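Appendix B.2, paired examples.
Example (i):
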Amino acid sequence: MGEVGVEGPCVGYIFPFSEREVVLMRMCVLCLGAFGRTEVIDNTLNPDFVRKYILDYFFEEKQNLRFDLYDVDSKSPDLSKHDFLGQAFCTLGEIVGSPASRLEKSLGGIPGKKCGSIILSAEELSNCRDSATMQFCANKLDKKDFFGKSDPFMVFYRSNEDGTFTICHKTEVVKNTLNPVWQSITIPVRALCNGDYDRTIKVEVYDWDRDGSHDFIGEFTTSYRELARGQSQFNIYEVINSKKKMKKKKYANSGTVTLLSFSVESESTFLDYIKGGTQINFTVAIDFTASNGNPSQSTSLHYMNPYQLNAYAMALRAVGEIIQDYDSDKMFPALGFGAKLPPDGRVSHEFPLNGNIENPYCNGIEGILEAYHQSLKTVQLYGPTNFAPVVNHVARYAAAVQDGSQYFVLLIITDGVISDMAQTKEAIVNGAKLPMSIIIVGVGQAEFDAMVELDGDDIRISSRGKPAERDIVQFVPFRDYMDRTGNHVLSMARLAKDVLAEIPDQFISYMKSRGIKPNPAPPPYTGPGNTHHHTQI
């Protein structure tokens, strides 16, 4: 998904704590697969570390980090020979999801002692994300067709280190003219010159033939730096056919190509928006239909085993624990559908799990799980399985905030066959115009054919003849992720990875379709007197 660098105000190590021990000293170390230590800063309680660490960042994974701090007493590489000062745990998502991608964590690990704090900051490594948009025309190209004029098109090549050329773009064909005006073309700068502005770009001009034996008209060379000057006398190029030039003494050229316009734009990434303050709002909707089975019986999908999470709770925790890193207040609306509610037994397809219609928000993932457990004791499982009300519920919130400051993710966990397919399709098509995505996790052994249709990966979903303008639904059956060895941590990690992998692209597709740019990130933190430095992750 991307690379980020991490910095921090102590020396130490950072490891995924599920795999290795981790250490900070008056020096800091980061480890993800391999590890490194920061430099040692002498004689200070406020070390400012310079060394950075580069990690691959994945939105859809929970990337655990641990920092241990040590006071270095000798040159020994053995950490037991040094004084332990404290440790901090976090995820990479917590750092990048914090304001300005800066996170301050208290150091712990020594009972009864205040250990100070560590400040961690992350920045995405820029990888030449610019795209160039250009328009060209040509004048007096050679006539190649016996009965008509020419049907010209251009092919762009970037030069490689070894002197060879790689094709990077082909224009459309303009029929029957020696003075074509091609449509604007957009090419990533990386593809055009691999980030080297002075590297040769070769452009060949051809006359299109139906049988594929296109006739070579001529070629010219330029560079990104030349093109970036825009429309000028420097960007009018003679198209040269070297064979013709050798044969004809009076040969001048085979026409000219002129650059009409040039602009460059930087492609924004998911992290650009997060760093600029965009919040991701997480809502969960749980299926309380009778087909789940009586919650008091062990065969029920809602059964509360005191020793093990049920499938609903596992799916909720797997997805929620990752998304919560991108929501500053950690307050999440939690809804249920398909149940009869007390006291009058009316059926609802959009009820708050905490029983508070005015304020359906739960405090963190634990708060949602608690409200879910309480609901099972008070509502009666019923039916049918209607999705449209909860989709429309989130859509109402999303419709009120379309400026790019918030994006909404709805997680629907269900056991069954949907009852309101037409209404749900309409709700999804409408939702595709809004800043929202929908994740559906199917639990149990039912057939989920309708869910696959809603997913829209193969055929874009449509309603009343109107296709959704974006694909916003991701469906997975929970049973595909159950680890045979019973390792539920592994099951939940795999599930989260697959259902969340599409969210950043769906997020970007909305922002681009609405022309929304990320807000500038707040200025980087510098501590008092610049005594702190940021750990780059």
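Example (ii):
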Amino acid sequence: MDQARTTISKIFNGEPRSYTRFNLTQNMEGDNSHVEMKLSSDMDDEVEANGVGENTNQHNRPYYPSKLNQRSPKTVCGCVIGILILFIIGKPISGIQKKDDLFCLSVFPPCREFSSASHQAGSTGDEALANKIMGKFKTFGMSTWTDEHYVKIHEPGSSNNLVLFRGNVVGTTEGYLAYSALKTVQGAALYAHYGRAGDFKRLQELNVDINGKVVLVRAGLLSFAEKVSNAASMNASAVLIYPDPVNYNIKEDTALFGHVHLGTGDPYTPGFPSFNHTQFPPAQSSGLPSIPAQTITIRQATEIMRCSCTINFSCYLLSLLLLLIMEVKNVLIQKKIHNVFGVIKGYMDKDRYMVIGAQRDAWGPGYARSTVGSSLLVELARTITDMIKNDGFKPKRSIIFASWSAGEFGSVGATEWLEGYLTSLNLKMFSYVSLDEVISGFDTFKAAASPLLYELLENTMKQVLMEPMGLSHSAYPFQTFSGIPSLSFRFTSSSKAYPFGTIEDTDQNLERYTSYNTLKLAKTAGEVVGLVTLRLVHDHLLKLNVAKYTSVIRNYVSQIRSKVESRQTVSLCGYMSFLGLLKKAQGSYDRAASALVSAIRNSDLDDMEQCRIINNRIMRVEGSFLSPYVSPRESLFRHILLGSGSHTLAALVNHLEAIKAGLESADIDQFKNQFALATWTIQGCANALAGEVWDMDNEI
């Protein structure tokens, strides 16, 4: 124990109960800014990270899913720019570049070792990379294994999909959208900006008929699948997606690839794994679209707009009266894919583990999409195993390194693995960190995470711009399907979108987007992950702050209460008792979180058995927010706070809006049922956090 403390103290700062600060005197704009990176290293910090010292009954500064605190974006971005500039210009940073102070990667090796011109899911190139990564793990002395899945994916047919305008083919259509409906449709074109729900609502307000239209939308802001789902809900006949030059700096004929499954994993084995030709009755995901969708190039979109209107690409709404014909003829095929794993086993709680994962495949070169992440994965494994061999570092808990295949088709490899261990993973796996798309620019640092990880991330890098975790984040199924606290972060650009899903995702282009500092940024990203990892696997108590969910729940309860109490919601006036039950469930969670803080304060944290009991209570929280009342086949993302579907608190808020507006979709009885089930899910989470059955505070 003493040796482990000494080792980790050296890694973090050399002395116990200390922290490193560094001041940045100038950022890119010449303005003064300040950044503090704090990394404490002993028991006091363990207690604070689990809520001691913070009044969980005061909510003057609530934490929301989309942000850590109320700092302005300008301040946050300025501070992050300062960090990056110091790395770029090569000045030493206390607590980052010195191995004696903190976790430090060596000079990061070129990522090209894991680059490949062709490594689509299930291809020989994909398999070669899998073998290379497996070989590296074995060289490091790690225990390794693989799993294989037979999954169904879409590939282009023998001839390209077609888009006809005025009876003529509009350019070449080499890109495609996997899992699109396979149909030929025709209809008048309708421009709908980004295809957001608000964009379609605006069209309705302008009395524009969407029914049967071929909707033309820009890429960006939300996933392709969400755009198509929004269009289908408005009875559009098809969707065309193009990269607008306002957002993308790519060639006019560059094709765009993606998928439109409103979910993750193999959509033809929803909720269960596709291990070893597993035979089940025919099934398909409810997230598969009913309408066809296709990407087109800038040149194709320009031709359509030039022939139909005089408004340029920056227009917001535009009705195009000429006819478009669209034919999608992708081919559904079965592919064998492999996930590759290596593990560093903990010396004390080896049956408790975190996972660090990276997508391995890509549609094109995929340099930023998969090569950088795979390189980081291997380098982190090498660095930590070296610490164990050379520095005597002993992680208390295990670390699994995972290389996923078929990520381009919606985290297929990762989700199939999660589905294979659905009932047990969140009992043993306490965190997931994604390395996908960690670098696509250099002037903005963003992160998406479980509220349980907010404080750990904030303590690792004091200024962080948080964004909601959504379908486009590869960590999303871990968080919302399996109930595992997850983290995804990225260095990105605040101007043009990076050309993911195109042949322009190359090492040369990434260098341009990062101002020729890709390797330095990769090293920085690796060190951030390394620091987070060491805190999660070494400290006696898990660095997961259960108190952070109190504000998230309270925020939803406040929204629901304001709508229920609204005079305009007359039809709900008789159901105030339901709101009372929800508030009681919220109170139960608040008290359970406070009780855990008290238990930590009053416990001997040198007692490993006592720490394990407390950690077990902490680990139950995220998984308990998964609704037990919905089928994973129908609603994959079951998390009632961060997931999607009618079971979520966000859906309750939206349903109240529908009731208030008198919409046809409103259903009072259905709302009451959803309300009751969501309420009991929160109460169940409070019960799980409370610990033993005799300690539960159940007022419902």
